[in-house]
Specification:
Layout (H helix, E strand, L loop, with lengths): L1 E9 L6 E6 L4 E4 L2 E5 L1 H6 L3 H12 L3 H10 L6 E7 L1 H12 L11 E4 L9 E2 L1 H19 L1 H13 L7 H10 L14 E3 L2 E2 L5 E10 L11 E6 L11 E7 L17 H23 L7 H4 L5 E3 L4 E3 L1 H6 E5 L17 E3 L4 E3 L4 E8 L6 E5 L2 E9 L1
Parallel strand pairs: 5-10, 6-11
Antiparallel strand pairs: 1-12, 1-20, 2-6, 3-4, 4-5, 7-9, 8-12, 10-11, 10-18, 13-14, 15-20, 16-17, 18-19
Length: 386
């Protein structure tokens, strides 16, 4: 088992959630921070007279006054986490706190980052990184064997009742893997550890969808997500460690019927080629008229976006990985080239490219400077192996 250690740099905002959202009664806002508190503990420690006042407000359906009593009773020991909050989110969420009965305002929930249940600190799950690697590797082998794979997988994509089986069949064919001989995942040879994040490197910000014509969707529900600060925010010291373990010797085990070689270089180059292609395709489709975000994707000259190609520096070609992870990666980064098919729920039809991107406004250290960027782009630079 070889352990590869990387230095990870978020190029754009990244959000990985735990599926839970914070309603207005779950947090309070102090200056430029959102504080999530333990509601049950706050109620438990509330003095009897204060509790009586709270119950009276609730009996009268005076929920705004009841929330004010609850928030004023929050002590530091009741805090679960303290998160930076952007100016736009702060303005919108203060309205939600002050209007508990407004059904529209109450929809402005906050989607938090996944956190360690013991420490309360956010982390980047290894499963998110492994899933992104998996897609890139399957894509690489699919392109090499597309002539034989496409006739097998395409009919499944065209049949709604069989579509759910398409990925398993695709992976079987791409990896030349015999599922009947082994119940375990062929990617069990690869392990990616959860990555601890630097302190104070997340922030709650407003996000919004943008259509291909560049118009913002202002009619939808306002969305607020806790996300990783990135190079787009001028963060230079936000790097963190990622560890990847690969058991290349197990590939020769007779019980593991993987017909393709899953070595480190194959995996690494698959990630660079696939995700560099997705950067270029997304730029052409959604950001063709925008100024190339060289300071962000450029990552000190490591990645350069030209109209017809993405150029990756030699140091990354030789030692790095490029990934797209987390929420708002969009289905194009979760599916393979030439067999890509998603489903438009509203139009009730299959699609091969999305019609919108979700953006977040990033602010650099320069006062007043900002840039709206897509989610999910992460650069890994190899530092060593054992």
């Amino acid at each position: 088992m070889t352990v590869y250690r990387f230095r990870a740099t978020p190029l754009t905002p990244i959000h990985v959630g735990d599926g839970n959202s914070l309603a207005p009664e779950d947090y309070l806002i102090e200056s430029d921070h959102l504080i999530q508190f333990n509601r049950a503990a706050t109620l438990r420690d509330m003095p009897p007279e204060t509790r009586r006042q709270l119950e009276e407000r609730l009996d009268r359906n005076d929920f705004q006054a009841a929330q004010e009593i609850l928030r004023k009773s929050v002590q530091r020991r009741h805090h679960r986490c303290r998160i930076q909050i952007g100016a736009e989110s702060r303005a919108d969420l203060l309205k939600a706190v002050g209007n508990p009965l407004d059904p529209v305002v109450r929809q402005r929930a906050v989607q938090g980052f996944v956190r360690n249940p013991l420490t309360g600190q956010p982390y980047l799950p290894g499963s998110a990184l492994k899933g992104a690697i998996r897609t890139a590797v399957v894509n690489a082998f699919t392109q090499k064997h597309l002539a034989s794979i496409k006739p097998v997988v395409s009919p499944l994509l065209e049949n709604s009742s069989q579509r759910r089986n398409a990925w398993k069949v695709l992976e079987t064919e791409a990896l030349n893997f015999e599922f009947r001989r082994l119940q375990e995942d062929p990617f069990r040879l690869l392990k990616v550890a959860d990555a601890e994040l630097p302190a104070n490197r997340t922030r709650v910000d407003k996000v919004w969808p943008v259509k291909r014509d560049g118009k913002e969707d202002t009619q939808g529900i306002q969305m607020h997500f806790e996300r990783l600060l990135s190079r787009g925010d001028g963060i230079e010291d936000g790097r963190f460690a990622v560890e990847l373990e690969l058991d290349e010797l197990a590939a020769g085990d007779t019980r593991v019927k993987v017909g393709r070689r899953l070595d480190f270089e194959t995996i690494r180059l698959a990630c660079i080629n696939f995700y560099a292609g997705r950067i270029l395709a997304e730029r052409r489709r959604f950001f063709a008229e925008a100024q190339p975000p060289e300071p962000i994707f450029g990552a000190q000259g490591l990645i350069k976006i030209n109209p017809d190609k993405v150029l990756v520096a030699k140091s990354i070609q030789e030692r790095g990985l490029l990934l797209r992870v987390g929420r708002f990666s969009h289905f194009e980064s979760l599916s393979v080239d030439h067999l890509r098919q998603g489903w438009n729920v509203q139009a009730r039809r299959s699609i091969t490219e999305g019609s919108s991107r979700t953006l977040c406004r990033c602010r650099s250290d320069t006062e007043g400077a900002s840039m709206a960027l897509p989610f999910g782009w992460l650069l890994l630079e190899l530092e060593g192996q054992t």
